[in-house]
Design a protein that fits this description.
Elements: E1 6-10, E2 17-23, E3 31-32, H1 35-41, E4 61-64, E5 69-72, E6 75-76, H2 77-83, H3 86-95, H4 101-113, H5 119-126, H6 134-144, H7 158-184, H8 197-206, H9 217-229, H10 237-247, H11 252-263, H12 271-282, H13 288-296, H14 317-333, H15 338-351, H16 355-359, H17 366-376, H18 384-404
Antiparallel strand pairs: 1-2, 2-3, 4-5, 5-6
The structure holds s-citryldethia Coenzyme A.
């Protein structure tokens, strides 16, 4: 049994010491269990944005930011992207291993059985304005699922947790497509369960009842890649939100709705939409230096969307895979977005030669190229983050399931450093002066 390592932290003022256990995982940096500091030294620790804080033990995903490595349950993302499919990756993330034939058939059948959404849910959509952002609709509808599926809300029961997981993965494509149809005034399509997961989504998005529709296999493969690459990513902001919501015992539909709300932010999942706005604003490679200068100006809040990452200080491996897929897709579909792709490639080249970006290790992240693929597939801009949420839903659920059986986990409740007014007594209005 290896000697348990500790890190001793001594307070020079009191002379007291805290022996903090050093915890080591399979890969990555060891972590100091700092709970002794409060007990022995009486101090809390301070880490705004939790940039250096491990919030949980997890066996699902591992990122090496320095190497630009991403593993799902130990499998390199490059191998899964090339050889797997999204539903198989869902099984892997949820249950820890790749399925055998029997497990694969059962999982597929479970998902197919739950692709339809209660008709009452579709009446929610009628309440939204025609120009409502699909993310606003998605947050509301996913949260409302808990008002329909009362038979899978008791989070203490494993069967309820698993049924809610299956329902969410199966229904997200139907709900996402319904939000799109509502925004363009077309009638909703129903799932066709003889189709694969991605084909089914594309037909619900783009088919109309008056015409037959056959998904383009090139588009199917490109979208399958996008879903795999966005499926999970350790304790990012939206996943941490789902865990925090789940730590209170909230039902899974409410927790996933909270994750969707967090993903919507432009600093997180909303960046893919923001990147297209940026590339369109640049308009011509000749304008790139002007935008680079703005991104470097500390007095200008402007940032180069799609660049930088809290963890990756090397290329985001997902960005590398998506860049290649962009190239292939635009060629295969003979899409007219080459100019936008050209601006993206030139922007990447210039930025990666610029000291500001090199010094801060700001590389293209998953959002930098994903928008170009989605546009080439005919996905409208305001649906980009909905696609991200659809892909990440399995990651959120897998992390939620892991947390629900983690004996170390308790309700999340961070501390703070209070910097407000010192204690003072109430003063009646009459005595407060003019
Ligand atoms: C996702 O966490 C995840 O895993 C997220 C995600 C996932 O799969 O779940 O990977 C998905 O959210 C990808 C990130 C998408 N967001 C963007 O592309 C928005 C643009 N990026 C930045 O807002 C920023 O890079 C973040 C939010 C992604 C990371 O911010 P950090 O780690 O808090 O970095 P920071 O703000 O501390 O910046 C460090 C320095 C600062 O400059 P100095 O103060 O040192 O002078 O880098 C600068 C920042 O100003 N900087 C940028 C920049 N990103 C950071 N400068 C210009 N453009 C940028 N994009």
């Amino acid at each position: 049994m290896s000697e348990k390592r500790v890190v001793t932290i001594t307070d020079p003022i009191s002379g007291k010491s805290a022996d903090c256990p050093l915890l080591e995982g399979t890969h990555g940096r060891p972590v100091i269990d700092i709970r002794q500091i409060a007990r022995e030294l009486g101090y809390f620790t301070h880490d705004p944005g939790y940039a250096t804080t491990s919030a949980c033990r997890s066996a699902i995903t591992y990122i090496d930011g320095e190497k630009g490595e991403l593993l799902y349950r130990g499998y390199p993302i490059e191998q899964l992207a090339e050889r797997s499919n999204y539903l198989e990756v869902c099984y892997l993330l949820l249950y820890g291993d790749l399925p055998d034939h029997a497990q694969w058939e059962e999982f597929n059948a479970s998902i197919r059985r739950h692709t339809m959404v209660h008709e009452g849910i579709r009446r929610f959509l009628f309440g939204y304005r025609y120009d409502a952002h699909p993310m606003g609709m998605l947050v509301g509808i996913v949260g409302a699922l808990s008002t329909y599926y009362h038979d899978s809300l008791d989070v203490r029961i494993p069967e309820h947790r698993n049924l809610s997981a299956i329902r969410l993965i199966a229904k997200l494509p139907s709900i996402a497509a319904d939000c799109y149809k509502h925004s363009i005034g077309q009638p909703y399509m129903y799932p066709i369960n003889s189709l694969g997961y991605v084909e089914n989504f594309l037909q619900m998005m783009f088919a109309v009842r008056a015409e037959p529709y056959v998904p383009n296999p090139v588009a199917v493969r490109a979208l399958e890649l996008m879903l795999i690459l966005h499926a999970d990513h350790e304790q990012n902001a939206s996943t941490s939100t789902v865990r925090l919501a789940g730590s209170s015992g909230a039902n899974p539909f409410a927790c996933i709705a909270a994750g969707i709300a967090t993903l919507w932010g432009p600093a997180h999942g909303g960046a893919n939409e923001a990147v297209i706005h940026l590339l369109e604003a640049i308009g011509d490679p000749a304008n790139i230096p002007k935008f680079i200068a703005r991104a470097k100006d500390r007095n200008d809040p402007f940032r180069l969307m799609g660049f930088g990452h809290r963890v990756y200080k090397n290329f985001d491996p997902r960005a590398t895979l998506i860049r290649q897929a962009c190239h292939d897709l635009l060629r295969d579909l003979d899409a007219d977005d080459q100019p936008l792709f050209g601006i993206a490639l030139e922007l990447e080249r210039i930025a990666l030669e610029d000291e500001y970006f090199v010094e801060r290790k700001l590389y293209p992240n998953v959002d930098f190229y994903s928008g170009i693929i989605l546009r080439a597939l005919g996905i409208p801009l305001n649906m980009f983050t909905v696609l991200f949420a659809m892909a990440r839903c399995v990651g959120w659920i897998a992390q939620w399931l892991e947390m629900m059986v983690d004996e170390e986990q308790r309700i999340g409740r961070p501390q703070q450093l209070y910097t407000g007014a010192p204690r003072r007594d109430y003063c009646p209005l009459a005595e407060r002066g003019a």
